[in-house]
Amino acid sequence: MSTVLLLALIASQLCLVSGELLMKRAMDLTNATPIPWRRFIPRFLSAIACMSGWFFLWGGILQRADLSFVYPFEGLSPILVMLGAAIFLKEKLTLRTWIGIALISAGVALVSAS
Amino acid sequence: MNSKQPSAPAPHPRPSRRSYALLAVGVTCVTAAELLFKRGATATAGAADATALFGFSILTSGWTWLGIAAYISASAAWINVLRQMPLHIAFSMMSADQALVPLCAWALLGETISPRRWCGIGLVIVGVYVIARPASHREVKP
After folding, report:
1. What pLDDT digit, counting tens, does each position of B48-96 carry?
2. Who contacts B54 (Cβ-Cβ below 8 Å, separation ≥6)?
3. Of A15, B72, B84, B85, which is most buried by a Cβ count within 10 Å?
4. What are phi and psi of A86, to 5 degrees?
5. Chain B CB contacts of A23 below 8 Å
6. Could you give the dihedral angle defined by the CA atoms of residues B122, B124, B130 and B132, in that order, rounded to the nearest 10 degrees?
7. Cis omega (within 30 of 0) for bond into A34
8. How open is the CA angle B123-B128-B129, to the nearest 5 degrees?
């Protein structure tokens, strides 16, 4: 794997995870009445910005490699998002959730090693 | 009225059936979007600058724009899922596309999948099932 491809994969993961965390924060606010737009809009827009960064990085990655080869690296994102959700959003993780993550990671490792 | 203990985090409210249906729509649209992006990327690969980090030339293909439409539909479904569902549950169920995308790349784009990769895809499916099942069958405690 080239250095450019590896850098793009790392950067795309960072963009994706921070985008998801910001979007969850934004959408949680929409359950309140009235919706606190002043707090919602900056979170929503920065989430969109992160996801746009992810989109163009992902486009560059796809131009260089087979989808079934690079897609497994996206499989790291459930683990990263779960850690982010536990740390920054204080979501409670159950044992079953951790078992599920372990299985997904093992599957991803197998897919990317082949 | 506030009888919650300050130390115990509030349990997540049980997500509705609508959330699960929206999640299914999201997974389908994301899978379609990835396949369309790959078609767009393949169609524009000749124009790619080998040193550039960003693949902006992908936008010159119509397939990419179809992919964008699918991705926008998925995003609309996704942000509505997020209103109710904890992020780690929703996102891990969304990773069903980790198995669906290679499967569809094999079936529709003619990419090859080795036996080890098949095993990996199987593990991802089991992992998603383990996470999704207790979330969808959990009883609400009084």
Report:
1. 566 566 777 888 889 999 999 999 999 899 989 999 888 988 888 787 7
2. A56, A57, A59, A60
3. B85
4. -70, -40
5. 79, 82
6. -120
7. yes
8. 95
Which pair of tokens denotes residue B32?
């379609």
**Cβ neighbours of A113 in B, within 8 Å:** 116
CB contact under 8 A, A27 and B82: yes
**Nearest CB partner across the interface for A56, out of B54, B71, B82:** B54
Q: What span, in angstroms and rounded, lies between the C-alpha atoms of A25 and B67? A: 26
Write the CB contacts of A106 (distance below 8 Å, at least 6 apart in sequence). B120, B123, B127
Instruction: State which residues form the domain around A97.
Output: 3-113
Q: How many domains does chain A have?
A: 1
Q: What is the pLDDT of residue A71?
A: 66
Please answer whether residues B37 and B67 qualify as being in contact, where contact means their C-beta atoms are separated by less than 8 angstroms.
yes
The ipTM of this complex is 0.82
Annotate B16-74 with DSSP letters as a single string: PHHHHHHHHHHHHHHHHHHHHHHHHHHHTGGG--TT-SS-GGGGGSHHHHHHHHHHHHH
- Residue A18 tokens read as 């921070």
**Dist. CA A92–CA B4, nearest whole Å:** 16
Q: A6 is written with which tokens?
A: 């590896």
